[in-house]
Design goal:
Family: Belongs to the iron-sulfur cluster assembly SufBD family.
Strand content: 35-45%
Largest sheet: 11 strands, mixed
Domain SUF system FeS cluster assembly SufBD N-terminal: 8-162
Number of helices: 8
Organism: Sneathiella litorea
Distance between the termini: 50 Å
Order of helices and strands: HHHEEEHHEEEEEEEEEEEEEEEEEEHHH
Number of domains: 2
InterPro entries: Fe-S_cluster_assembly_SufBD (IPR055346), SUF_FeS_clus_asmbl_SufBD_core (IPR000825), SUF_FeS_clus_asmbl_SufBD_sf (IPR037284), SUF_FeS_clus_asmbl_SufD (IPR011542), SufBD_N (IPR045595)
Radius of gyration: 21 Å
Helix content: 10-25%
Domain SUF system FeS cluster assembly SufBD core: 172-401
Length: 429
């Protein structure tokens, strides 16, 4: 039998006892799905640095077990700063109806709790991931406790963003939350979704969200994410999206929190004139570690993908960007662009970058670029020579560095919200 890491062995040992309290435990189909996930996780364990996709991110601090902390319990829930009439809130891994506002959703939009769907035996929503070799996804399948299920009928447009809040408070009884989210958009439907992942600083926990997205022809999903977990937390997220003909998937992830985080996205362009837009920014300080890993698969001719990721790293923070664009044989007339840039504010900060193009067609237009460096001393000197204080000049240059990637956010309200968060982070630079 394989020797597992301590945390993996803990999950295997407690599965039988825990499964009886998880949603859908009375459904044979749900129970079978969970057992399948556990078996795959036990055969894989948490990935080590010998796994190529994880060689820049070391999970040892997590796999040795999450230590309890002395963070003061705070019963107050942080108020939502983003203004929208549509809010769904999860507190400590479970849906909170009292903290949600879902009574004004437009006709044709439906959102429910995954726990409620599993209790009803609706395991078909989850499909089958029996061949998925990602350990944290298999672990999520075994222990998924809640999440949201969002569906939109054909031709429905949601004019106002939907806010989904995942909040972990310091008084949480569990130190791990495995959220499973499902999004299904009908033909030519259009939805804007903002996720917030928040936690009380000093509280150690493990967040393992998995999101499965399927768009139909001509649909558009604007999917934005703020990762502002506790500075003692571990956040490992996986998002998969199927993008058919004429559909558009736009994703922007802003990461400022967590001790260690990884945001992994895979988009599959399966129809002509489809588009994948993946952008993001990560702002790290102290000893934080942030990993962004993307895979974009062009499976048919005539579709486009674009990626821009920018990071700012201070103190001893570490950043990782791994981006792969795959173009299969006969996927002609495809365009794929990828750019990663990092700004190092300290000589102790570091970034590891691995851009990758896998091209099996000849009529394509692809590019990738990566760079990292310090603030431009000449530009800093120029601003100071015009009477601007050094601290203010540094902030101006950092703001300019981030401005163009924030401009990629198509929703103006979300763009302004993220700009406010980045400005708040830079006040401590």
């Amino acid at each position: 039998m394989k020797n597992l890491t301590p945390l993996a062995q803990t999950y295997v040992d407690r599965f039988s006892a825990a499964s009886g309290s998880l949603p859908g435990h009375n459904s044979p189909a749900v129970a079978a799905l969970r057992k399948s996930g556990l078996a795959r996780f036990a055969s894989l364990d948490f990935p080590g640095r010998k796994v190529e996709e994880w060689r820049f991110t070391n999970l040892t601090a997590l796999t040795k077990g999450i230590k309890t902390t002395d963070a003061p319990a705070n019963a107050a829930l942080p108020a939502a700063e983003f203004e929208t009439p549509h809010v769904m809130t999860f507190v400590n891994g479970r849906f909170s109806a009292s903290e949600s506002r879902l009574d004004k959703l437009p006709d044709g939009i439906k959102i429910t709790s995954l726990a409620a769907e599993l209790e009803a035996g609706n395991s078909a929503l989850l499909g089958s991931d029996t061949e998925d070799n990602r350990a944290v996804v298999a672990l999520n399948t075994a222990f998924m406790e809640d999440g949201f299920v969002l569906t939109a009928d054909d031709m429905v447009t949601m004019e106002t963003p939907l806010l989904i809040r995942f909040v972990t408070k310091a008084d949480a009884t569990e130190n791990a939350h495995h959220m499973r989210n499902i999004i299904r958009l009908g033909e030519k439907a259009c939805v804007t979704l903002l996720e917030e992942h928040l936690g009380a600083d000093g509280h150690a926990y493990f967040a393992n969200p998995v999101t499965d997205i399927t768009l139909k022809k001509g649909a558009r999903l604007n999917h934005y994410k703020l990762q502002a977990e506790s500075n003692s937390a571990f956040h490992l997220a996986n998002t998969d999206c199927e993008v058919p003909a004429d559909a558009v998937y736009e994703n922007f992830a802003l990461s400022t929190g967590a001790r260690l985080s990884r945001n992994e996205l895979e988009t599959r362009l399966s129809g002509g004139k489809s588009k994948s837009i993946l952008n993001g920014a990560y702002l790290m300080r102290g000893a934080q570690h942030c990993d962004t890993t993307t895979v974009t698969r062009h499976l048919v001719p005539e579709n486009d993908s674009a990626q821009i990721y920018k990071g700012i790293l201070d103190d001893e923070a570490q950043g990782v960007f791994q981006g792969k664009i795959q173009i299969v044989p006969d996927a002609q007339q495809v365009a794929g662009d990828q750019l990663s840039r990092a700004l190092l504010l300290s000589d102790r900060a570091s970034v590891s970058v691995k851009p990758e193009l896998e091209i099996h067609a000849d009529d394509v237009k692809c590019s990738h670029g990566a760079s990292s460096g310090e603030l431009d001393e000449d530009a800093l000197f120029y601003l100071q020579s015009r009477g601007i204080e050094e601290k203010a000049a540094r902030k101006m240059l950092i703001d300019a560095f981030l401005a163009d990637v924030l401009d990629e956010i198509s929703d103006e309200a979300v763009r302004q919200y993220f700009a406010t968060i980045t400005a708040r982070w830079m006040e401590k630079v």
